[in-house]
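Researcher: Going back to the complex we discussed earlier. I've cleaned up the inputs and rechecked each line, so this should be the final set. Can you rerun the prediction on the complete assembly and write out the structure?
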Amino acid sequence: MVATKADIKKDSKTKFILGARPPQRLSKEDRELLLNLKPSVKTQSRLAHLPPLKIVDGATCGF
Amino acid sequence: MVFSVTSPAESFLRPQPFLNKLQFADDHERQYVRKIAKLAIDNKSRIYLLTNEIDTVYGFIALSLASTISMPCVVIDYLFTSLPYRKTQYAELDHRKVSEHLLDVAVLIAREVDTRLPVHYIALQPAHDKLVNFYQRFEFKRLHLKDWMFLRI
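Model: Rerun complete. Updated structure for the full complex:
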C-alpha cells in the first residue's frame, strides 16, 4: 500500500491509511477474483428504487 | 426532515467550520477527519456531506479515483457518521442508517461517472476488521492477500 504525498502515517491501531491507493500487483488468485466479480444484484435492485441522486452545491447553502 | 447530499465549498472544509459541525467518539476520529479534509482541500479526495434543511451534518463520504490491475475505480477514502446519528435508522432514508445511505451515494456517484468514463469497481480499505462484515453486507468482496475490498458496479 502506498500513502499519498500527504504522507499520512499508518495508524498503529488500524490498518487504515487515508488516501491509500488500491494494490496494482495482486496474486493470481486475487486477480481472478477481481476480474470475475459481477455487479451486485442486491445493490442494483435497491438503488433502482431510489430517486436520482441530486447533489447540492455547498456554496449556495452555507456549506 | 429532508436530507440532502451536499458538495461543500473549500472554505467549509477548513478545520474550524468542518470539525465544529461534527461530533466525534474520540480525538483519534477527529484527527482522521481533519486529515481527510486536508486531502479534499488539496483536491486529492472529494467530500459529500449528508445534511438536512437546518444545516445539520449527519456524516460524509470522501471519494477519489484510482486504478487497480489497470482498471479505473472509485475509492472510498473515508466514511464517517457524526456521533449522535450512529446506529439510527431514518424513515426519510428508506429506514437505513446514515452510513448505509452514504454507501448508496458512493455507488450512485460511481455509476454516474461510469456513464461518461469507465469505472469498474468501488474500492475501500476497512479501518477495522470489524467493519468487514458491514461491507460484506453490501457485497463488497475481500481479497485474499490484501486489506482491500471491492464492489463491481
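Model: Worth noting: Confidence is low (pLDDT under 50) at residues 1-10 of chain A.
Researcher: Good, that matches what I expected from the previous run.
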